[in-house]
Every structure is written in C-alpha cells, then in structure tokens.
Amino acid sequence: MTEQVVRPLAVRSVGRSLERVDGHEKVTGAAAYAVEHGEADGVIDPLHVWLVQSTVARGRVARLRPEAALSHPGVVAVIDHSNAPRLRDTGNRELLILQDDAVGFRGQVVALVLAESAESAREGAALVDVSYEVEPHEAELREDNATYKPDSVNPDMDTDTEDGDVDAALAAAEVVVDHVYRTPYEHNNPLEPHATTAWWEDDAGREVLSMFDSTQGVHGVVESLAPLFGLEAEQVRVRAPYVGGGFGSKGEAHAHVVAAALAARTTKGRPVKLAVTRQQMFALTGYRTATISHLRLGATADGTLTAIEHAVQEQTSAIREYAEQTASPTRMMYAAPNRRTSHRLARLDVAVPSWMRAPGEMPGMFAHEVAMDELAVACGIDPLEVRERNEPDVDPETGRPFNNRRLLECLHRGAERFDWASRPPGPRATVDGDWWVGTGVASATYPAMKMPGNSARVRSLDDGRYAVAIGSVDIGTGARTVLTQIAADALDVEPGDIDLAIADTRLPPASVAGGSSGTSSWGTAIVAAAQRFRADHGPSPDPGVETTASAADDPAAEQYAFHSFGAVFAEARVNRWTGEVRVPRLLGVYSVGRVVNPMTARSQLLGGLVMGLSAGLFEESHRDPRFGHVVTQDLATYHVAAHADVLDLDAEWLEEADEVFTPMGSRGIGEIGIVGTAAAVANATFHATGVRVRSLPLTADRFLA
Amino acid sequence: MRAMRYLPAESPVWAVETVAGSPGAQFLAGGTNLVDHLKLGVTAPELLVDISRLPLDQVEQYDDGAGLRIGANVRNSDLAAHPLVRSRMPAVARALLSGASGQIRNQATTAGNLLQRTRCVYFQDVTTPCNKREPGSGCSALEGYGRYNAVLGASAACVTTHPSDLAVALAALDATVVVLGTEGERRVPFADLHRLPGDDPSVDTTLGDGELITSVEVPVSRASERSTYRKVRDRASFAFALVSVAAAVELDGPVVRDVRIAWGGVAHRPWRARLAEAALVGRELTEDAVRSAVDEELADAETTAQTAYKVPMLRNTTALTLTRLAEEETR
Ligand SMILES: Cc1cc2nc3c(=O)[nH]c(=O)nc-3n(C[C@H](O)[C@H](O)[C@H](O)COP(=O)(O)OP(=O)(O)OC[C@H]3O[C@@H](n4cnc5c(N)ncnc54)[C@H](O)[C@@H]3O)c2cc1C
C-alpha cells in the first residue's frame, strides 16, 4: 500500500450543509441495525441469546443448575464456564467470560441461554439457578480508599506530571483556592442498546466468524476477538452499517460481543442474536468513573496563576484497569510556572469503566473551571478576566506553539452574545419572580487527534462515478455524509458521484469513531487515496482502476500542539422556594478548525452541550455499595435531560481552517461540546444564588435554604 | 416465554367474578405499569383480565353539579383536558399534566394511575431484597438509595413513597372511590384507599379480593375551584416528585375558612396534612403561618441524610402554593 503526502483540499462541498446521505433509510426504518439483519444479509433462522448475570459482587459460582431453563419451551442450550468453548487469555479479563467460576463484579456474565425466541431466552435466563460462594467485596469510591498509581492514564499519558515547585508557590501565593470537586458515575446510554449478531461459517476449509455489531469501530472488534478465539484477523468479519450512538461505550468490544461469538460457536452454523437490555448496559458496557479532584490554585492578587495542582482519585475495576485522564486538560489549559497533576486509582469489585464522551476532559474541566470561577471571586475580578490573565503563549505541557489557540476570541464572542458586560459582578444579585438568576462561563478544550492505521481505496466506475471505501463506522454523527463530501472534493467531483462504502472489516482499515478523531483520521486517508489516485490515473481514469493509500506522516506537524477550544455560557435560574434549577440559555462558541458540514457539526456541538447540561443537572448512577451494582439502572431513574430542560440552546464557531492538522482543515468536534458545560452551569448557579456546589449533579436540594 | 392467559372483560361484574378467588389473576388497564412489571419479573400473573375496553370511560356530573364522576378507564390525557376538570378542579388537571409523558398519559387510566405501584429501585430490581415484592426478604431502601424515600408514616419494613400525582390531588379534594366487589358496590373515602406500610408493605391498598374500581367521585367546592398542584423535581418534565403539594383554599377576607393540603413524595400513600390544615383554619394566611403549620405536620417526620431536604422543600413549596392561591383569591 502506498503512502501519500497530502496537500490541503480545495474545498467545494466541504463547508456546506449536505443533507445526510442515509437520512431517508433512517427515517423510513429501512436502515437495519445490528440485530435487524435477515436472510438477505445471510442471517438465516437465528437463535437468540440472553445473558445470565451474577447477583454477587465477588466470589465463585458454587453451583449452576440449568435444568429448569433447559426444560423451558424454546430453550436450546445453557452455556456456562463448565461447557463454554475455550478462549485464549489476551490479558483482558473483561472479555474472558465463562472460562472459570470466578465472579469479579455484580452483573458479570455467568451463563448464556440460547433459545428459539428472545422471549424464551429471557425466561430461560431467569430460570437458571445459580448459587455462589460469596467473598467480601469493596464497591464504594471513598476518599480513604486504598489507591495505587497506574502506569499510565487513558489512552497512554503520564500518570503524574510536575514542573517547578508547587508547594513553595502555594505557600507564597497571595490567593489560594483549595477545594475538592466531585463528579458521579455516569452511563453513556446511547439510544440503541448494544447488540450483536454472530455466526460461524466454513470458508474453503477455514473458519470464519461473521458479525453485525453495534460498534464504533469494526476493526477494533476484530483486534479484540480474533486472538481470543485463536483466529487470524482475516477469519473475523465485522460489519456495522448503522449504529444508534455510542458516546464511547461502543468504542471497544465488551463482554456481550464475546458472548455472542461464544454462543454462535455452539450452534453448528446457526446465527445468534444478542440484544443487551437497557438495565444490562449499566453493568456490562462501560461507564464514566466517579472522580474526586483536589484542586489547588495559587495566584497573585490580580488573579495571575503561580501554581496549579490537580490531584485526582478515581476508580477502576479489579477485572480490568481503566484510568480516566481527568487531570490531563489541567496540564495544558492555563499558564503557571509551577504545576503538578496526579492520578490514583481505587481498585474496586465493580463493573469495568470505560470511555464516555470526552473522558478526562469532561470531569477534569468541571473541576478546573469551577476552581477558576472561585479564583475570580477570590480576586474580585471577572471570570473572563481571570482566563485572559492566564492565557499561555505556548502549550504549558509541551512548550510547543498551539496551532491554533483562539480561546479568548471564543470567550469574547460568547460574552458579546450573552451581554456579559451588563452582568452584575456579585452573586445573588438578580431576582425575577420566584427565581434567582445568574450567568456563568467556562472554557472548553479538546485535543485534536488523528489515529494511525487508516487507509482508503478509490476506484473509478464506468459512469464517471467513483467507489470510495474505508472501514470506518458512522455511529449517527453524519460520518457517511461528511466522508462523501471529502471524497467528492478530493476527487473534484460532485458528492452524488461518490459511492461510499464503510463499516466493514473487508474494507481498508479504519480507526475507532472516538476521541473526536474520526473525520480527521478517515478523511485524511480518503484525501490521500484520492490524491494518489489522481496522480496515478489522471483526471479521466479507465473504469475499474483503483488505488489504496494512506497518508504519510507530516513531520512539520510535530512542532505544534493541536487542540480545539471553546467557551460555554450558561444562564441559570434557581427557584427561591424549591431549589429547582433551570437553564434558559446555553451557548457554546468554538474554535475547531474548518467545519466540514455545518448541519451535522451543529448537531454534534448542540448534542455535546445538551449532554453537558444533562451531566450538570441530572446524571448520576447510584451504585449501592452493599450490592455492588448500579440501582438506578433505567432511564426513569437515571435522568438525562428531556426536551423541557433544553431551552434557548445555540452553538457557533469561528471561521478557520487548520490545514497543518488535516488536509480538510478540520480538527474534530464530537466531544468538545460536553467539556466545560457542567462547569458553566455550576458557575451560573453560584452567580444566581451565592451557593457554591462542587459536586455534580446540581440537584434542587443543593440550593434549599 | 411464560404462558399466561389473557381475557378481555365482558362486563364489570364478570371481571370481578373472574378475578375474585384467583390469586394469580390481575386486572389490566392501560398496562403502562403492569406490563413493565411483567417484563422485570416483579409480578407473574397467570391470568390478565383486560378491563380497558369496559365502558367506564365517561366524565359526568352527579347530583346537579355537586361533583364529577370519573370513570375508571378515563385516560389521563382526556381527564386532564376535560373542561369541567380544568375549571372546577384545576389541581386534578395540573397533577395529571405534571406526570409521566404525553404518550404514557394517553395510555394510562384513572384507576391504573391510583393503583400504580412504587417506583422504588429495589422493588423493581428482583435481584435485591424488597418486602413489598417479596414479603419477609427485607427492605433494601432503608439503608440504600433513598433520595425518594418517605419521611412520614414509614416503617422498618418499607420506606417507599407512592408515586401517583393524581392521587395527591384527589386526596386533597376528598374524593370517593367507587368499588365493585363480589358483594356489590361500596364507596371508599379517598383517605382510606391507600395504606401505610406497617409490617406488611406488600399490600398497597384496602381493596379486597377481586375488587374493581369503577369510578372516582370528586365533589366540587369553592375550594376545589381554587385548587392547584405544584410538583418539585430536578428535571423539568418526565420525573417523579421529590415532593409535591396539592392545595385548595377558601378565604374569608384574609382568614382561612377552608384549606386542603395533600403531599406527594413523602409517604407510602398520598399524605393529607390534616394537622397543618387545622393549624391554618381561622387564621390569617401568611407565609409564616403556613411554614409553622407545615412544621406541626412534620413534627414526626423521620429523615436521613438523603431525605433531609424534603423538610425545607415541603415547607417552602407549601408556603409558595398556598400564598399564591390566596393572592389569586384576593385579587
Ligand atoms: C416512565 C414513566 C414515568 C411516569 N411518571 C409518572 C409521574 O410523574 N407521575 C405519575 O403519577 N405517574 C407516572 N407514571 C405512572 C403512570 O401514571 C402509571 O403507569 C399509569 O397511570 C398506570 O395506569 P394504567 O392504566 O396503565 O395501569 P396498569 O398498568 O394497567 O395497571 C396498574 C395497576 O392497577 C390495577 N388496576 C387498573 N385498573 C384497575 C381498576 N379499575 N380496578 C382495580 N385495579 C385496577 C392493575 O391491576 C395494576 O395492578 C409514569 C410511568 C412511566 C412508565
């Protein structure tokens, strides 16, 4: 395969609001999701799998009696650790299910029931009689947990950092802000629960495992599953034509994907379908760890930071380590000569945490941006001014110049739209009827990321059209549409001339739809393939010629720090009688490079803001430490923002293009909307009421006199 | 799949006779609560008698307009939109509209709403102990997730609250529940419909074996015409009450002649705050008077760290609700 040095794209379709190319299929119900495929796609006469989950947090399966389940009409088999096909240990214990009798968390898969219908499988699962040898467990994140220092934090960052002498600077500081900030457990809850269809086939004497999976990355599923089953990557085919959201929870294969593949192993070729329930998602498909952030800011009287310390305690699972990089944005956000960050983990007997939209940035910037607001209050200056005063010239973490840091422009533009100049400086200054009214601001940031390992294929068709292929997944973001636009511009044709194929591991490899890296990574590969194709085959290629290429690394890019920035402004109203919080206005202004499709981008940014609002006001998974599982395990008890909570909501962006980072000039937009939003809302409630709340969510009881 | 029989009811009497004496039989109305419980394994009836198509779906005046008789099957949306309900007993309309979502209200019935079961997370999670679901297994909520727990009338066996908004409004308005049993019809004062948990929380109501609610009668009064409902919740819609207040007041100048206060989110049944009412009758209605009346009612409240907020929330919300009603009255 060829590596192509990419040139910036001459944009024509990019930058325009092309309507979603798959919109019609979706709104008419024609789009088939992971367990909706039928005979036309090779899913013939499927069996249904239901998961049996442990009801203890730690111990061993002492006895598992399948008899009642097996005699239930429709039930075909019960698979547990005694009869499950063997897996190879790849070091990922989350995926190593049904290999022994050990239970590491409540809700862990202890058996599978296969049946002719989903209903029979579900009833069969309820009839499997499991008893346990119970061992003591620890399932509560507390400040006094025993903790350890992980080798690195997600994805592979330093666990701790230190510059200068923080203690001395704090001791000498004229103003010190020293508080503990908390964020709760949160669950991703995409609209479409996780689901997998799997079957094993014989392909000329070789076994092939085929799957439709609701995933953010088909190639990643192969990388996880193939070694578990002792297969070559080519022996696993994963497709994900439509995915109903993921927010990180489908970024990696979780246990249910292995369960489907294991179950299908036993059916002599019959496909199996496994649909995870909403309740099961609270134990099996990842979540955001709760975080405890100890922030210490030292400053001169005018608000100039002299020291920043961010010490994080959070939680991982005894089954598998996941270390949220909560303090990572603190490392690059503001200038200060003395800086220290650290992460410590409590290893608990709980479900495995994972990625949730803006892991690290979301909880970390809540803590840091509320602390900055407190610093402004302590210094008696405006929250905008405290941020202006601490704007760094270069990335404080790497010393490299930013390409491009326009945080202050975002703040100023938002301030103008929010009429910040007329804001009363002190808290508890405005009453409107029954409501205290206030406004708050927070900065947002997200690293620009581009993943290695992407390539794309361009082939000319006979009618002047082009087939463009890459294995990336559209999880509902509009990727299919923006990649069509990028391909069209890169080949200098109309979007309608592009036949885009995605979401299949038979296509050229693509990285995960995560880390806001999708459009940057896949788009760059498509541009590389298209530019190479034109170089090889010219403007009027013969039908059928094709080129597969990936982008060559750009050494010039190494000298910069690439981050996106934003400013979030919120108005909060807090009811003087009941404490209820409402957010009538929420605005985000962003600098995210060139926006490839304003319509889909707006949805991403607005969606991020809503999710940040939701985290600010409502979201909290309550884990009952006695049992070890989350007991608010449905959408009636785990509250996400509903329509009535979202009022005047808007997002805008600065016109720009970051052509050092990608040939499209884009930097990625999926996550930044959630960053800082909860802090802006919290700061607004402080301004409204004078009550400083340092832990999410900002529920009514916090504001009751 | 579990086998279950389903029979559409032929008549109210037939429905009662079919369910009475069969512990495995249950009435099915809109199904918005019961069907969830079937799926979660909270209940496993052998027979569902579908009463939703019985013609118990009228709202009519009785005794020359002395009150409204609401059929058991009137949908929550229809009841909330009914002109006489809106004008003669706004608390009922507001309570309904503050509950659930538009889709659920279209499906949910009047009787089903009153007989919906607790939303306690442990009641709904069959892997945890719950005395209401499985008598004698213990109460997980006592020391568990308790933000929605009761502060009045709870017991060591159960600390949950009744989730219905409509029930709180009807408690304030002194409704009567008309019930058909094998022995014929009987009339239950609303205050006697729901129970406190005591040592048998598995029983929510005083209804007997096979008894079917056929209608609810709500008297109209000057107070009911000036009634209202205020529900406090974190989310602006589609959430159960942290606390709620149904109130009605009739003033004589500044002085309270008649006042009704019922609370939701505080007890195993809608809580009629009779002590607070007694403290207010004959007195001038001021914010402070309401606050101290509320405190009298709450003298026996038992709170935990998770429910302590309900005391100031009730005090404030009751004061807000009653003083607003009084302002409207004197305007
Ligand atoms: C997500 C969600 C949110 C909700 N939010 C709210 C809220 O905020 N406030 C609120 O008040 N409610 C709320 N609800 C509950 C909703 O109001 C109830 O589910 C509904 O009112 C029940 O009515 P139904 O007709 O569907 O009852 P069903 O589910 O059919 O029946 C409920 C019970 O009543 C019995 N029953 C029904 N009719 C009769 C009768 N005539 N005689 C004797 N027994 C009978 C049934 O046997 C069953 O035990 C919510 C529900 C959901 C799912």
Task: Describe, in plain words, how this protein is organized in 3D.
The complex is a heterodimer of chains A (705) and B (331). By secondary structure, chain A is an alpha+beta fold. Among the domains of chain A are: 2-31 and 450-553, Aldehyde Oxidoreductase, domain 4, CATH 3.30.365.10; 39-136 and 189-284, Aldehyde oxidase/xanthine dehydrogenase, a/b hammerhead (Aldehyde Oxidoreductase, domain 3). Chain A contains 15 helices and 25 strands. Chain A has helices at 23-27, 67-70, 118-127, 166-172, 218-228, 255-265, 278-284, 328-332, 361-379, 383-389, 407-417, 479-491, 518-537, 598-617, 677-689, and strands at residues 2-4, 47-53, 59-65, 75-80, 102-103, 109-115, 129-134, 161-163, 175-183, 195-203, 206-213, 236-239, 272-275, 291-299, 305-317, 338-348, 431-432, 435-447, 456-460, 466-469, 498-501, 546-551, 563-575, 581-591, 648-653. In chain A, the strands form 5 sheets. A 7-stranded mixed β-sheet of chain A has the order 4-6-2-13-10-11-12, with helices on both faces. A 5-stranded mixed β-sheet of chain A has the order 1-22-19-20-21, covered by helices on one side. In chain A, strands 8-16-15-14-9 form a 5-stranded mixed β-sheet, with helices on both faces. In chain A, helix 9 packs across helix 10 (383-389), helix 9 packs parallel to helix 15 (677-689) and helix 14 crosses helix 15 (677-689). Chain A is globular and about 75 Å long. Chain A starts with a strand and ends in a 16-residue tail after the last helix. The relative contact order of chain B is 0.13. Chain B has helices at residues 12-19, 34-40, 76-81, 83-88, 90-97, 102-107, 110-114, 166-172, 222-225, 274-280, 287-297, 310-330, and strands spanning 5-8, 25-28, 47-50, 59-62, 67-71, 176-181, 184-189, 212-219, 227-232, 243-252, 255-264, 271-272. In chain B, 29% of the residues lie in helices and 21% in strands. Chain B is globular. In chain B, the strands form 3 sheets. In chain B, strands 4-5-8-6-7 form a 5-stranded antiparallel β-sheet, covered by helices on one side. In chain B, strands 9-10-11-12 form a 4-stranded antiparallel β-sheet. A 3-stranded parallel β-sheet of chain B has the order 1-3-2, covered by helices on one side. Chain B has 331 residues and is an alpha+beta fold. Chain B has a domain at 222-329: 2-Layer Sandwich (Enolase-like, domain 1), CATH 3.30.390. Chain B contains 12 helices and 12 strands. Chain A binds chain B through residues 55, 73-74, 117, 119-120, 123, 126, 434, 577-582, 617-618, 622, 624, 626-627, 629, 631-634, 636-637, 639, 641-645, 697, 699-701, 704-705, and chain B through 1-2, 41, 119, 121-122, 124-125, 127-128, 140, 143-145, 232-240, 242, 309, 312-313, 316-317, 319-320. The complex binds flavin-adenine dinucleotide. Flavin-adenine dinucleotide is lined by residues 26-34, 51, 72, 76, 99-100, 104, 107-109, 111-113, 115-116, 163-166, 212-213, 240 of chain B.
